[in-house]
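User: Predict Branched-chain amino acid transporter's structure from this.
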Amino acid sequence: MGTYTMRLAGVLLRDRLELSDQLQRLLPMAASALLAALATTAALMEGTGFAGIARPAGVLVGALLAWRRAPFVVVVLAAAATAALLRLAGIE
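Assistant:
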């Protein structure tokens, strides 16, 4: 309910609330930082503990391939295969 209320408030208050130019430039960076923090937490943590080496290694392989502009399917499959093979080898 709170999420919908916040979204509705944004639509209703759009014309009444004016953000400074500096804040308007800062908001996209804040969103990127929040997304990066979420991705890092998901890659490194499982519950309240460290996820082990396999998951971050898979993420690293996927990030490297994405940086090299590999097709998305290749990135996902390589990342999953890396994590799976490391776990199969007994490296958690």
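The two ends are 39 Å apart (CA to CA).
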